[in-house]
From TrEMBL:
Gene3D superfamilies: Aspartate Aminotransferase, domain 1 (3.90.1150.10), Type I PLP-dependent aspartate aminotransferase-like (Major domain) (3.40.640.10). This is Aminotransferase. One of its GO terms (biological process) is amino acid metabolic process. Residues 38-387 form the Aminotransferase class I/classII large domain. Signal peptide: none annotated. It is an enzyme of class 2 (transferase). InterPro entries: Aminotransferase_I/II_large (IPR004839), AspAT/PAT-like (IPR050596), NHTrfase_class1_PyrdxlP-BS (IPR004838), PyrdxlP-dep_Trfase (IPR015424), PyrdxlP-dep_Trfase_major (IPR015421), PyrdxlP-dep_Trfase_small (IPR015422). PROSITE patterns: AA_TRANSFER_CLASS_1. Keywords: Aminotransferase, Pyridoxal phosphate, Transferase. PANTHER family: AMINOTRANSFERASE (PTHR46383:SF4), ASPARTATE AMINOTRANSFERASE (PTHR46383). GO terms for molecular function: pyridoxal phosphate binding; transaminase activity. Its cofactor is pyridoxal 5'-phosphate.
Amino acid sequence: MEAENQGMSLAEQMNRRVRAQATSDILQFNAEISQIQDIVKLTLGEPDFTTPDHIKAAAVASIEADQSHYLDSRGLLQLRQAASDFFADQYGTRYDPERELLVTAGATGGIYSSLTAMLNQGDTVFIPTPIFPLYFPVTQLAGGHVVSIDTSADGFLLTPEKLQNAIESHRDSAKVVILNYPSNPTGVTYTQSQLKELGEVAKQYGIFVLSDEIYSELTYAGKHVSMGEVLPEQSVVLNGVSKSHAMTGWRIGTVAGPADVITEIAKVSEFTITCVTANAQYAAAEAFSQGRTDAQTMKNVYMDRRDFMLRSLRNAGLRVVEPQGAFYLFLQLPERMRDSWKFAYGLAREGKVAVIPGASFGAGGDGYVRISYAASMEDLRIGVDRIISYMEAH
């Protein structure tokens, strides 16, 4: 080992799996184009609302009551109970707050802890794309192997046939299929019957379903259906308050699933962060218990914005995936502009609008861009006019 490292810098001796990963191209792109004067940013997936006052008051009260000490590494029991009640009322799932629920540092903390706990070296994770890109590096850091399943020809939804074919091709190493719905970046979601069909495939092969449902409260038509209801014995469900209660910076996520599985995931979370910030947990307990309708007001505004953007872009002859949730539009680029990175940089520099290249979301994403309508209506009006003008000029 000493001879192997001779002549190498300390940085070159770092973990090879870490060194192989690039930092987030979405965050890099966002930082780079933020320097452009007068740019309208329709990039990051962050609500433009403020956290409701009653939730902020709960955090302040916890600070004034000197709730500034370590909490249970699985999370404040009051919060886990409130989350359990919320999920039961909203989605019909039943989780024991003491044994089947874990509080994490945002849903991203849940992704990391879950995949790290699930994967052995060489295990295969099936990821339908386009999708939120964090799952790729976290899988690889944990020693897993990513198999992307391009859903662009299937309405951006994973079909049971494609999942089964992918598993059959990697039967000896198959371990996890990831779902993210309502989807980032497309806004599409699954019906109960579609989830049941996917669940049957997962059940046949005995693999985990890691279901990221962080946008569940922003489902537009009908009620969100959770994999925790469809396939409770094999599903690990991620959720939280970031999108539903405009609390991205509070960093509160939840992981729910079978007790023996949550026990292992909780170990990773404990080893990584000890526990989530105390006052943020008291605020989240308030959100789940007394903020049941907080998301509705935001959802109504998002729907108005979605309808405006869809109408404006389609009237200009552009093709857009119609979202059934979240706050994103996936805009298909004309044939002459299919390189999504080239288009996004050109639009930012010349058109003064920032959107995210579809290629950043994996196979099937290039040829599209993601537009976030978690922005003011004024910015959306300016942004859509500039997008149309830029495309007409090129």
